[in-house]
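haha ok so turns out i had the wrong file open the whole time. this is the CORRECT one, sorry everyone. sequence first:
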Amino acid sequence: MWACPGVRLGTRKSDRRARSNNARPFNKGSRRQADTAASEAKEATASAGRPTHHFLALGDLAAGDAGAYLKAALGQMATGAAKTDTLLGERYRRLVKRMPKKEALAALQRSILVIIFHLLSDPTATFNDLGADFYTRRIDHKRRTDHLVRQLEALGHHVNLTPAA
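then structure:
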């Protein structure tokens, strides 16, 4: 993680003494003893509730485990939105055809997060659902027909199309 150089942890004398007492001396060149001493020091500081790194990471400056709460909330939103007759529901149904359900839900979570970001960053923004038929309305029927005819001809079929009544 990126270290924030302006914030230091463990600068009090009592913390320095506690760290120096936890470190065990080792012979020069003994890598195994150095590794065990380092791991014991990490375990001691982790069990004491103090971070194991010297500098406070940028992520630690945030509100603790906010990411876990956000992930859970987005998961519930995505699961609910996947069952609706909206753009997000249709997006999920399109994605789940070509990827596992968990990945499709993760993509839906990101879409919801992008929507939330734009709504919060711009006070004048409003959300208008484009509808479940958004993707079908965008299809160019002539282009799609020509593409399918070319595919069938490439497979060796002769195609003669007549418009439906």
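The first strand starts at residue 3 and ends at 8.
again sry for the mixup
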